[in-house]
């Protein structure tokens, strides 16, 4: 069973500060191109925005921050850009994990990491182990992640754990699938942010975004900062999360 309420089955608690923020960090390439720099310069500057955002979220009291760093479809990019992204991931892990650890941040990586080079897989394992006991903020990096990959791997894992369900598929419930998703240990995101101007999900957390509040900004990821984050939080605070109910029910204090 998942540890947290599912937004389509129970009504999760809501509050002023989003407990889980999920971000599609988009616009690195356009940030660089607009400055007549190679696209990869945008990715390098994007790492600074990651640092700022992790710090700002930790200060604000966010418990889970999930960042989309590389999608299942990003392998389609030119090989040299993919290779720079992998280098940046390696360097960031080598340089930043000590600081994350000192700041009480737990690092998790979700996605099909088996396709990464051994050195990167090793660093991911070490970083997760080193920060496992931290509890101030869980920073999840989605790398070679896709929402469809996640649903396929969850289905496979469920049937491997309970093969009898194949003969009786009507017994499969939402919670069975949710329990095998790559982020089954986290609540669903409250707030989704996408920078860079596109208004799409691009195969991010398809299942978990069912009732997440969506926020889009034209700001390119390397320019994202605390003020931008606060604007997103302000928009979030102004939303009425109804989870299928009516406003009148909410006003009457309905809990279910
Ligand atoms: C996001 O920035 C980073 C990754 C997808 C790895 P982009 O590289 O997609 O930047 P744009 O969208 O081309 O500007
Ligand atoms: C989404 O950005 C993936 C990441 C930010 C890692 P993309 O730039 O790959 O998305 P599309 O191709 O514009 O939908
Ligand atoms: Mg993009």
UniProtKB/TrEMBL annotation:
Biological process according to GO: polyprenol biosynthetic process
Binding positions for Mg(2+) per the UniProt entry: 26, 213
One Gene Ontology CC term in the entry: cytosol
Cofactor(s) listed in the protein's UniProt record: Mg(2+)
Cofactor binding description: Binds 2 magnesium ions per subunit.
Entry EC number(s): 2.5.1.-
Keyword Magnesium annotated: yes
GO molecular function, one term: magnesium ion binding
CDD domains according to UniProt: Cis_IPPS
Family that this chain belongs to: Belongs to the UPP synthase family.
Subunit organization: Homodimer.
Function according to Swiss-Prot or TrEMBL: Catalyzes the condensation of isopentenyl diphosphate (IPP) with allylic pyrophosphates generating different type of terpenoids.
Entry protein name: Isoprenyl transferase
Organism: Zeimonas arvi
């Amino acid at each position: 069973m998942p540890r947290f309420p599912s937004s389509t089955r129970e009504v999760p608690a809501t509050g002023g500060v989003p407990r889980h923020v999920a971000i599609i960090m988009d616009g690195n390439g356009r940030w660089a191109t607009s400055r007549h720099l190679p696209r990869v310069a945008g990715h390098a500057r994007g790492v600074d925005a990651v640092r700022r955002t992790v710090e700002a979220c930790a200060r604000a009291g966010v418990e889970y921050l999930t960042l989309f760093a590389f999608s299942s479809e990003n392998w389609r990019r030119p090989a040299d850009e993919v290779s720079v992204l992998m280098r940046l991931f390696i360097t960031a892990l080598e340089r930043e994990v000590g600081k994350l650890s000192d700041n009480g941040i737990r690092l998790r990586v979700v996605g099909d990491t088996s396709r990464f080079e051994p050195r990167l897989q090793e660093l991911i394992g070490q970083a997760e182990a080193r920060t496992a006991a931290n509890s101030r903020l869980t920073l999840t990096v989605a790398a070679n992640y896709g929402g469809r990959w996640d649903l396929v791997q969850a289905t496979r894992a469920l049937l491997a754990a309970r093969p009898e369900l194949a003969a009786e598929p009507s017994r499969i419930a939402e919670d069975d699938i949710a329990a095998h998703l790559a982020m089954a240990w986290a609540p669903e995101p409250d707030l989704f942010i996408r920078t860079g101007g596109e208004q799409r999900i691009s195969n991010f957390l398809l299942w978990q975004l069912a009732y997440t509040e969506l926020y889009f900004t034209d700001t390119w990821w390397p320019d994202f900062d605390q003020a931008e984050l606060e604007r997103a939080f302000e928009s979030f605070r102004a939303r009425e999360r109804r989870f299928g109910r009516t406003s009148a029910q909410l006003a009457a204090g309905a809990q279910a």
